[in-house]
From TrEMBL:
Pfam families: DLH. Residues 16-232 form the Dienelactone hydrolase domain. InterPro entries: AB_hydrolase_fold (IPR029058), Dienelactn_hydro (IPR002925), Dienelactone_hydrolase-like (IPR051049). This is Carboxymethylenebutenolidase. It comes from Humibacillus xanthopallidus. Signal peptide: none annotated.
Length: 236
């Protein structure tokens, strides 16, 4: 079970879900949501990361829009896309940066802090990592991005030198294969970047609540993610 905490930002406190590992201490991970918010699926991933030994914080990135619960229902995709269109992206980046910096200060976090993001959160995490490095601030220790939806517009403009893992399906309905390959060529110029692709997998293939879920790709990607985190953000 997660607990509810408030992360301070430049204009108020951001509601955030926090999971602690069985040992009570460990490295930190900021978990960044899809367009549907901190859904039951994202919460399951948060709990699974905690089981791997991480202190996990999942901020409600839509809080400035007055939305702090998951987007659900038959029109969830339309609702989520509408929220993203209304969102101030730069503010969202700063809020996610605030979550990284807050997690670093927590007594339970006894090592580095990484970022794991899905779809909207995958692109947001990339921007957060790039911003911290560009500003000379304490960088994230690792980044795992699942089919980052903002990557098509970000990869040519910014770089992430931290150890990074990207997952993309090659049957993505929203990001065509040519764009995926362009992102791959760009981000893998950084030597610590790993780029994994999955034949036949659509966008959001990891989300078992979505019609695009691909069980085989999801299992393989999660195993790769866990191994990558163990290597670059080891737990004691």
């Amino acid at each position: 079970m997660s607990e509810s905490v408030m992360v301070p930002t430049d204009s108020g406190a951001m509601p955030t879900h926090l999971w602690r590992p069985p040992a009570g201490r460990g490295p930190g991970i900021v978990l960044l949501q899809e367009i549907f918010g901190v859904s039951a699926y994202i919460q399951r991933r948060g709990a699974q990361l905690a089981e791997l030994g991480y202190v996990v914080a999942a901020p409600e990135i839509f809080w400035r829009l007055g939305v702090t619960s998951p987007v659900e229902g038959d029109d969830a995709l339309q609702q989520g896309m509408g929220l993203v269109q209304r969102l101030d992206w730069d503010r969202a980046v700063l809020d996610a940066v605030a979550a990284v910096e807050w997690l670093r200060r927590q007594e339970a976090v006894d090592a580095g802090v990484g970022v794991v993001g899905f779809c909207f959160g995958g692109g947001l995490g990339f921007n957060v990592a790039a911003r911290l490095e560009a500003e000379g601030a304490a960088p994230v220790d690792t980044l795992v991005s699942y089919y980052g939806s903002a990557l098509p517009g970000l990869h040519a403009a910014m770089t992430v030198a931290a150890p990074s893992l990207h997952h993309f399906g090659l049957a993505d309905s929203f990001i065509d294969t040519a764009t995926v390959r362009a992102i791959e060529e760009s981000v893998t110029q950084q030597p610590a970047t790993v780029f994994e692709t999955y034949e036949g997998a659509d966008h959001a293939f990891d989300n078992d609540e979505m019609p695009w879920h691909d069980a085989a790709a999801s299992a393989l990607a999660w195993s790769t993610t866990a191994e990558f985190l163990r290597e670059h953000l080891p737990t004691s």
